[in-house]
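Purpose: get a first structural picture of the assembly so the mutagenesis plan has something to point at.
Setup: two entries, given in the order below. No constraints added.
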Amino acid sequence: KAGVTQTPRYLIKTRGQQVTLSCSPISGHRSVSWYQQTPGQGLQFLFEYFSETQRNKGNFPGRFSGRQFSNSRSEMNVSTLELGDSALYLCASSSGGVSEQFFGPGTRLTVL
Amino acid sequence: AQSVTQLGSHVSVSEGALVLLRCNYSSSVPPYLFWYVQYPNQGLQLLLKYTSAATLVKGINGFEAEFKKSETSFHLTKPSAHMSDAAEYFCAVSDSDSGYALNFGKGTSLLVTP
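Result (structure tokens, whole complex):
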């Protein structure tokens, strides 16, 4: 079974721009969660999508948004980028609930 | 609200020595607990998880952890460290109150010396 894939792996943007990151979950998984990893704040939960609906949301500003498509692929969007948005963004897929979350390799976003 | 505390941001052990990484949690409802490992420039890999079955949980690569409710702990151990164990380790908690989102500790960087 193919693992979770994330594209692109690396991204450089400037302040004020917007960015879209993509995540393809493991085949059959309907839940996709997004996490932000920074040296200062560690790993923080952004949101979870299940069957195209946002089911859970962390404590991030509205500039962070996401969506999920009918094939379970998910995208997250960050608008009006700030320097503090520089981070590794990790996507995880699962069957939902307490089942194991499988993580992708992440997208490293650098905001200049 | 739930939270996780990992004691020691850096732990150094000799090859062949016992590995002990500490994790304490707080949760107002029965928790589910996880240990993940992250190698440089990679995502997270699940080592083991506690989901209210056996309190002693065995994971991959010889790691195990014991759930101790009275101490609110879920420490990770391995009897004999290998050089390949050098990585960042994260303890995480989830529960029904959080919608099963993973709440991670700050991580412990494990260094294994020859």
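The interface with chain A takes residues 32, 36, 41-46, 49, 51, 90, 92, 94, 98-107 of chain B (CB under 8 Å).
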